Amino acid sequence: MRIPILKLQDYLLVSVQIELDDQTAMQFQEDLLNKIHESGATGVVVDLTSVEIIDSFIAKVLGDVVSMAELMGAKVVFTGIQPAVSMTLIDLGIHLKNVQTALDLEQGLVKLKQELEEK
Amino acid sequence: MNPEYQDILLAHSNDIIHRWMNELEDSKLKEYKSTISDEMIEQVNREFVNMIFDKLKNDSSRESIEQFSERIVNLGWPLGYLTGGMQSFRSICIRTLIEKIDRHDPETFLQVMDDVNQWVDPIKNELIDAYSSNWSNIISLQKVALQELSAPLIPVMDGVTIMPLVGTIDTDRAKLIMENLLDGVIKNRADVVLIDITGVPVVDTMVAHHIIQAAEAVRLIGATCILVGIRPEIAQTIVNLGIDLDKFPTKSTLKRGFEKALEMTDRQVIKTNDHDDKVVDDIIQSIDKE
Lengths: 119, 290
Prior knowledge:
The complex is a heterodimer.
Chain A: E1 5-8, E2 11-15, H1 22-39, E3 43-47, H2 56-71, E4 75-79, H3 83-91, E5 100-102, H4 105-118
Parallel strand pairs in A: 2-3, 3-4, 4-5
Antiparallel strand pairs in A: 1-2
Chain B: H1 3-11, H2 13-25, H3 30-33, H4 38-56, H5 62-75, H6 79-100, H7 106-150, E1 154-157, E2 160-166, H8 171-188, E3 192-199, H9 205-220, E4 224-228, H10 232-240, H11 254-264, H12 275-289
Parallel strand pairs in B: 2-3, 3-4
Antiparallel strand pairs in B: 1-2
Helix pairs in contact in B: 2-6, 5-7, 6-7, 8-9
């Protein structure tokens, strides 16, 4: 199962609509980096509204994606993390310190725009 | 129950009731009596004894027993009133029966005892059950009420919400606070959440840890947390304990925190009517002219 990555002008939009397992997450990491390379996007919004479970491995993969994308010159914002997911992550001691977050897709795009203008 | 005994009991019911009431007069209830009027006691006693006799005539339902114990709970009378009342009632019944029956062999005694016990004990059990379930009802209602009070979230304007915390925070409450906070942020689409700890008497490492966790969780779902209401002594303990609160902004009062929140959401408070200032300006100008 692959997660579709959509291009919108300079940004990439990813809406994760399935439960992430280890393999999907790794596949997603690879796909996203390739897509960033292909399109030369400067910002990525990953929407996690319909994701109910994030375990420590998935969290690590997502955190890594952010660092990797940053290396390739693209900012990543996660949006729509569910309260329950956020609580589990904190309980597990995963703080995702390098990750920017926003309430929803709309605010995610606004945040991305702000960040890119600052640079 | 042996119909013979039943007839005797019913025939002498008035006598039994009279003796029972007299006995209750001297009983435990005395300690509580000072606050209760005599008529009230009389009335409740009568209800009590009627209920027991109804049961003997087999036309009493469980409902009436429940109603009665609910009444006792509401009146705030002790459980001892019910159990003590039932005990003395039992002994009076046994005594009356034995007095009225001509046979005096041990066999009959035992039978009388058994019969009366079979009649009285179930009522006693049901009363105690009903009484205690009434209590637990009250307790669970209070628990719910306490929870509702424990972590309210108040949306004050678009994108800004406040959670005032009052009282000590333990692990259970911290969990509830976090859940309410996160759900509230999503529901109100808040950008900034102010956690007001003015009413939290002690902030130790555990409480600070919970607050930091809540703030981190809020950041993950895409909002910002501001901790406000930090009193001097709390600032002291936080620094002395070496707790690191650098990750999110802190302010001394809710007012300052709110200003910061406005700033973060690109807003500011503007006075719409500066009439007063104008008056002062006019006066100053007129003085200048002179």
